[in-house]
# Entry
Amino acid sequence: MAYFETVNKISYEGSRSTNPYAFKSYNPKEIIAGKTMEEHMRFSMAYWHTLTAGGADQFGAETAVRSWNNLSVLDKAKARAEAAFEFMEKMDLPFYCFHDVDIAPEGANLREFYKNIDTIVDILAQGMKTSGKKLLWNTANMFTNPRYVHGAGSTCNADVFAHAAAQVKKGLDVGKLLGSENYVFWGGREGYETLLNTDMGLEQDNIARLFHLAIDYAKEIGYEGQFLIEPKPKEPTKHQYDFDAATTIAFLQKYNLDKHFKLNLEGNHATLAGHTFEHEIRVARINGMLGSLDANQGDPLLGWDTDEFPVNIYDATLAMYEVLKNDGLGKGGINFDSKVRRPSFEPEDLFLGHIAGMDTYAKGLKVAAKLIEDRVFENFIDKRYSSFTEGVGADIVSGKATLASLADYALNNENPRPNESGRQEYLRAVLNQYIFAE
# Structure
């Protein structure tokens, strides 16, 4: 059965194309900085936004028009699994991602949930074999069900912790079976509302215990995917323990988890943390912790996680600049954790949203590669910090300097003046030139 009959396979037609169902910048086989665009991007479909989400929000019911809407719960899950491969094929997306509850209904109990997962995983495995599509990452939804009202790894109830562990176990079993390249932990409720009723130390210790249990089980079954953590500062809890990249890295280092985990960073989460996306990626990159990206953007006029398709060329360029400086994303990729707006309810809108996002990141890749090739920022930064390459600066960097030697130096060189202007306005103008160059 065809689920998206009105849309043909999306192809590259170039920047002058007026066809809304064509790529203007994303040319999968085009070589940029030594690799094809497809190899750089490793684009992925988010199962939950593309297939499961129906457009409901806090103030209104679902609006999405989908051919599976009137099916029974399990039949709906089967239809979505089939539709996934038609969509990925037509969009030329090599990867997909999912939470366990995205692909299968929970049912009445854990045993039924396991059974439902197995039923759908069989369909996914066959679809992957036939199509060649791959699973970028999978994860367990441990935040939606009421049992997780107090968290999963951070819960105050040991029975709930055990249930969370059971979901993670099944998730790793599925990851091994489907060959997922990563397994993600997103602590949807791993945080607190008030410290008045919270044992923060125990909660963080228990989250770490859950992660170590996952590492141990992965070794036991031979699962070789990369573990990822996705930081988020708030929503749904007031204060998440994985607030941002720096907080999460510190947590991983404290619990000796940093050798096993990297970060899956999301654009909208960076905004909620009061950071830019490129800041979060830079923090992960310079700490050797950059794993994968969730590509989306938020609305600066709204204070929550709107998960819009990314169309901000500045953000995409600077994100891809960091990815290129990292020499790629390894086992990670660029997952469109993005949803069409509620009024965009027709199936065709799913394609138009992905085209916009893929073109934006493809253009960002091309601009970033040119900036790096011309050493636009590198030359400026090298000059700005040149005082640390000779004389007293070289002594500081090498560790030769002491407080006493620096004090003696300063006494003989009083009233130092800044040696270089930061020239932010100039650099932003240059970035504009590169973005809008033909």
About this structure: The first helix runs from residue 37 to 41. The mean pLDDT is 96. The longest strand covers residues 134-139. DSSP finds 16 helices and 14 strands in the chain.
